[in-house]
Amino acid sequence: MATPPHLASQLAVNVLDAHSLLAAFGVFGVGVVLFAETGLLIGFFLPGDSLLFTAGLLCTGAADRGLHLSLGPLLVAAALGALAGSQCGFLIGRKAGGALLARTRSAKLREGAQRAEELLDRYGHAKAIVLARFVPVVRTVLNPMAGALGVPARTFTLWQVIGGLVWSLGLTLGGYALGSSIPNVDKYLLPVIALIVLVSLIPLAAEVLRSRRAAKEAP
């Protein structure tokens, strides 16, 4: 029995490729992927940054790949996925403590957990929760780490909403703005996405430099 073309395309999806995910699942896939990346430890490898930027770009029709998304539903799906996922990760951390992270065999996850704990210790709850959104893997593990370390639920919710909206809507609108202003931007998609990912790390890099400067100036 032959497999329907639309089902075959979904079965053949490459979860590491933003365009493949969008072609298979559209706007709905954005919400699901962001929920998995920010709420479930198994989603740490998913391409959240590039997915958001590429999805925003595809809303302009500038990328000539036969795929067009609607900006309004995309923004809603991105925000809901990012916020619900983060809150879910926090609740998992509160229930399971550090047991899940302690049992993981992934060196990348363990490294991310260590960096997440360092962020919380060094910058405090509010700043760490916002900055973590812009660091792959760390944005996955900081949520359960915050729950396990007893960060107050009200504090976590407030700052994860702020950070989540800035990250998800900012990258999506960045892709949309670039696609609207630069003709044939699709030709430069890969280097542009790499640049966007680097730019997304600027808040963390700036905070690290500021902290180091303050440490040197301290008596």
TrEMBL record:
<keyword id="KW-0472">Membrane</keyword>
<dbReference type="InterPro" id="IPR032816">
    <property type="entry name" value="VTT_dom"/>
</dbReference>
<feature type="transmembrane region" description="Helical">
    <location>
        <begin position="66"/>
        <end position="85"/>
    </location>
</feature>
<feature type="transmembrane region" description="Helical">
    <location>
        <begin position="156"/>
        <end position="176"/>
    </location>
</feature>
<dbReference type="Pfam" id="PF09335">
    <property type="entry name" value="VTT_dom"/>
</dbReference>
<comment type="similarity">
    <text>Belongs to the DedA family.</text>
</comment>
<keyword id="KW-0812">Transmembrane</keyword>
<feature type="transmembrane region" description="Helical">
    <location>
        <begin position="188"/>
        <end position="209"/>
    </location>
</feature>
<feature type="transmembrane region" description="Helical">
    <location>
        <begin position="21"/>
        <end position="46"/>
    </location>
</feature>
<dbReference type="GO" id="GO:0005886">
    <property type="term" value="C:plasma membrane"/>
</dbReference>
<protein>
    <submittedName>
        <fullName>DedA family protein</fullName>
    </submittedName>
</protein>
<keyword id="KW-1003">Cell membrane</keyword>
<dbReference type="InterPro" id="IPR032818">
    <property type="entry name" value="DedA-like"/>
</dbReference>
<keyword id="KW-1133">Transmembrane helix</keyword>
<feature type="domain" description="VTT">
    <location>
        <begin position="46"/>
        <end position="176"/>
    </location>
</feature>
